[in-house]
Amino acid sequence: MTAEFAADYGGPLDLVDYDQGWPAKFAYYRDELADALGPVALRIEHIGSTAVPGLAAKNVIDILVVVADEHDREGYRAPIESTGLALAHRDPAASWSFYRPAAPPRTRHVHVTSRGSSHERVQLLFVDFLRNHDLAADAYAQVKRRLAIRFADDRERYTRAKTEFIFDMLDRAEQWADQTGWTVEQR
């Protein structure tokens, strides 16, 4: 199994201050996806930086759609595409697919993963950790702003450059999860 990619990363990087309207935008997209997917969507969650109050982000709403089996694309691909999204990346080894609007403006990204996958856990844990740790969220914002200046015209390099910081934060998030009893099922 090989990963499928769409090469276009959507133009220059534009990091903006937190927008109080992001939760409402997520709610709109969540409802649209829920209507399209019906019971295929086991959970639809707001993830990424726009899900963390006060955090600077690209003005793109990241959405996690959890399905029973990401490999069973027949159950979710057409309904997701009916909302104007197109497959941008798929990594079967990670049970993860990534959809975005077929053409700019790219207002939302939809991540599809299998229930119980590591992708589901990591995405939800990272958001919850940042929501509960202002200093970590502030540090992440500073890193993102520095990288946004350095890689203003290269989203792919910006994203790769954040990875080391994110992995460090995930180690801390896992410790927090152990200390607090955080689980995907109980969030």
UniProtKB/TrEMBL annotation:
Pfam families: GrpB. This is GrpB family protein.
